[in-house]
Amino acid sequence: MTNPSVRGVNMGRIRSTYRVLNMLYRELHYRILKTNVLIAEDEEKMRRQLRHSGNLLTSVGLQSLTYLFLGSMMALSMAMAKGIETKAVLFSSYCMFPFILAIYTSTMNSSYVVSMGVFEPLKPLPIRTTPVYLSLLTLIDGVPGFMMILFPVMYVFTESIPSGLLALGWGLMALFMGHTLGLLVYSYFGTSVRVGGGKLGFLKNMGKVIVIMVVMGVFYVARGVSGYVSRHAATFASLTAKYFVAFPFSASTIYTPLKSLVVLAPYVVVFSILYFRTIKRLYKGIEEPSMISEREEGEKGGRFHTLPTWLAIYSKDMKTLFRRSQLLAAFLLPFYFIMPQLFGGSFGVERSLALILMSSAFSILLVGASLKLEGKGMELMQSLPLRKRTYVMGKLVTLVTFPILSGLTVALLATYYNGLQSLPLVPCAFLLPLMSAAVAMAYTSRMMGEDISIPEMNVIALLVMFLLVSIPYATIGISFALLNGYVRWAVCYSISVATIVLGLLTIG
Questions:
Q1: Are 201 and 292 in contact (CB under 8 A)?
Q2: Are 265 and 388 contained in the same domain?
Q3: Beta-bridge mates of residue 194
Q4: What is the percent of the chain where pLDDT is above 90?
Q5: Is the pLDDT of residue 212 over 80?
Q6: For FRET with 81, which of 12, 91, 255, 262 sits at 20 to 30 Å CA-CA?
Q7: Which residues have a Cβ under 8 Å from the Cβ of 129 and sit 6 or more positions away?
Q8: Torsion of CA 269, 270, 275, 281, to 10 degrees
Q9: Beta carbons of 332 and 402 less than 8 angstroms apart
């Protein structure tokens, strides 16, 4: 029987730990919001966002409800699946979601916590700061990812209690492995001060984009994975039987509890050892960051690159986006829009063109965000001998980058599925976003006045830009309804090029 005094001490420690974590969580999200130029300049918006995202229980609770909804659909897929093998394969595929989300949240939050000095407010207080607090703080945002597989676990419980316990164990293990690997990645790469450009910069940025897309489109990814696994259950069953020791295939052993327990035990031991070694390394890395030179072999000195001014503005914007994931997520919205099509949609020519047209319209919605990338640096930008036209041209390229990439994705997939008849969509992937951006920036440059500034992008301004660009959009739509063959493509290209030229000439 537990001593009441010991139980009281333990409860006191739990409450104390919760209070510290709640304070750190609020501080973390406050500092993240302060770096978001889309929010930081609006005090009311800042206060409103902090009220929700800075409250530990509210933020985690709302995220958990969203993931629980997704989990209910996963459990329904398992219930509808025929055969134990198919259900086991489905469950093992679901374990990848808390695993990936835990890697992402642990890596990104570790970076924010350390680089933004979240632990600074604790230094004057009589509180011992250890990497354990960092671990718990970065794990919090990964917990909702586990909620995604809670309903599938409950479904397994209805079939067999031992299997349900193993399913719960593998779900928690997926979360713990992702968290450990996230901390490991940050301890090796994030606590080192790197000098030079680095060979892996591009790959790291692409990895960040891919993970953000998975997080943003987790609903469509989950639905696509369920459908794909169900259709190829026999293939996956043979793979899991052959490689049952490797994660996530190992989670498919839940319906053979003894075998699953034998496979799970080494994972618990190995990752527990790795976790404790990692947080020790992380603590040392935070206290004494190492210096790593990434200058390429044979390079004798720094190299200076002279870029055209508009291209330098674009380069600066891209670097800002990839340093701040919350801003990058906003610019990736065109990809989020086409995700339903990527997971199970059809790729007919007309439907694909409509997708490119609609994703191109996101150029207008991103005008305000692209201008606000300057943040407090706008005063410096205004002090430079920089023509307004040059500045606007740089912003136009920033504005159009992601809509072009999303449109090109649709065009290439349509060409892959339909053959050469969809090839004319490829020029549209470039011309239509450029057309929307040219119209939007031409109107925005008029709103600026004589000098570089950040005009207010209110609902009326956005509505006017949408109305202006709807004229060439409607003309292109009518031409496709009335014309056939390559004539309609020629009309589409001609209208786009004419609108782009007119828009660029109007920028001043």
A1: no
A2: no
A3: 292
A4: 6
A5: no
A6: 262
A7: 119, 122, 123
A8: 130
A9: yes
Shared domain check, 259 and 125: yes
- Residues 189, 208: Cα–Cα separation, whole Å: 14
Is residue 452 assigned to a domain? yes
Last residue of a domain, one of 266, 292, 318: 292
Question: What is the pLDDT, as a whole number, of residue 325?
Answer: 60
Which residue stretches of 288-419 are H helix? 309-323, 325-331, 333-342, 349-360, 362-365, 367-371, 378-383, 388-418
Tokens representing residue 114 in the block? 């350390």
Do residue 186 and residue 332 come from a single domain? no
The count of structural domains within the chain is 2
Nearest Cα residue to 347 out of 428, 421, 433: 421
Beta-strand runs (E) in 227-348: 290-293
Domain identity same for 148 and 263: yes
- Asked if residue 280 and residue 377 are part of one domain, the reply reads no
Q: Decide if 349 contacts 293 (C-beta within 8 A).
A: no
Q: Are 265 and 370 in the same domain?
A: no
Q: Are 223 and 76 in contact (CB under 8 A)?
A: no
**Cβ neighbour number for residue 65 with a 10 Å cutoff:** 11
Determine, yes or no, domain membership for 42. no
Q: Does 2 fall in a domain?
A: no
pLDDT in tens, 150-198: 899 999 998 889 988 999 999 999 999 888 888 887 776 555 544 444 4
Domain that holds residue 180: 55-292
Tokens standing for residue 377 = 């640096």
Looking at per-residue pLDDT, the higher value among 88 and 15 belongs to 88
Does residue 5 sit within a domain?
A: no
Q: Residue 222 and residue 335: Cα distance in Å, rounded? A: 16
**Token digits of residue 181:** 């690997």
pLDDT of residue 307: 67
CA-to-CA dists, residue 501 to 56, 274, 356, 452, 507, angstroms: 51, 59, 20, 22, 10
| pLDDT score of 159 | 87
- Indicate the SS3 state at residue 283: helix
pLDDT in tens, 94-120: 888 888 888 877 877 777 776 666 666
Q: In the chain, how many H helices and how many E strands?
A: 25, 2
Rounded to whole angstroms, the maximal C-alpha distance in the chain is 86
Q: What is the pLDDT of residue 178?
A: 87
Give buried/exposed letters for 82-110 (b at 16+ CB in 10 A, else e): eebbbbbbbbbbbbbbbbbbbbbbbbbbb
Q: How many Cα atoms sit within 13 Å of 158 on the Cβ side?
A: 8
| Residues 267 and 156 reside in one and the same domain | yes
Domain final position from 292, 327, 346: 292
